[in-house]
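> Could you send the Multicomponent Na+:H+ antiporter subunit B prediction when you get a chance?

Sure thing. Input:
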Amino acid sequence: MTTFVLINVTLLAILIATALTISGMRTLYAATMLTALFSLVTACLFVLLDAVDVAFTEAAVGVGISTVLLLGVLSLTRSREAVTPRLRRLPGAVVVLFTGGTLIYASQDLPEFGSPTTPVQTHPLTDVYLRQSQEDIGIPNTVTSVLASYRGLDTLGELVVVFTAGVAVLALLGPLMQPAEAREREVLDLVDYRVLRVVTGMLMPFILLFALYVLFHGDFGPGGGFQAGVIFASGFVLYGLVFGLDRAQQVLPRRVLWVLIAVGPVLYAGVGVANMLLGGAFLDYDTFAPDDAAAGQHIGILLVESAIGVTVAAVMTSIFFGFANRVESSR
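Output:
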């Protein structure tokens, strides 16, 4: 067994052990922390499989912002899971066992792990996307070429899904226009902890700068609008946790966030309309620089990635503000 395979098997064993532990826990806080550990180990597996962009997303979303939002949910509910009668758990157990057995049976037809003769390695499309895209799009990062250019319309659909989901969650959390001051709420305020306050104040510029780096460097390496938006949101969430929600909302008012949620899809679609007005097809970035197709692709991809980042950051931050503004329920 090679070292690479051994590391993968070890990480897989950690994932299985973590999942089994979570399934048997009733303490929701501990389950949330283990869920973050599960996402972190999964991100490590993606890195080993050379899926660095996916690993980046998993680390930013699964380990970072999702954990904070789950903790926000726990502040509105009980700290322990209610006991479910055994008879009610039986159907779920049957579905899980059946699904797991089906997946294990189907996995027998998969090629050998790491085999160079898999369809992914030998299919002609691999050569098209990995090599020809360098000439067609002029973007070193193939993932960005595929997501933002080749299937830019699909990515626009994904952004609309993020927009719709964000609006739906905010609507479920309460009236969007109801001011936070009108409700009694408990705010997590750590401003009295000097170490946290000083460290957070020092980290905030670097967090936001790194988010910009991830956004603008997505053409050349792992990153892009989704990851940058989550990092932006994580920075403001950290600011709200340490300095207080009221101060965070002074820096970034909720009404501004609600406007920014809609700015992303409008900007993304507007790029496509601009391409059509310039004589090209919808989301045909070449029209931005007819004499230099690569430059046009860079401009178009940067615009749509910025649109994605704005909406993702606004949605994540608004959801956090929405949870933090809720009245704490009885436990």
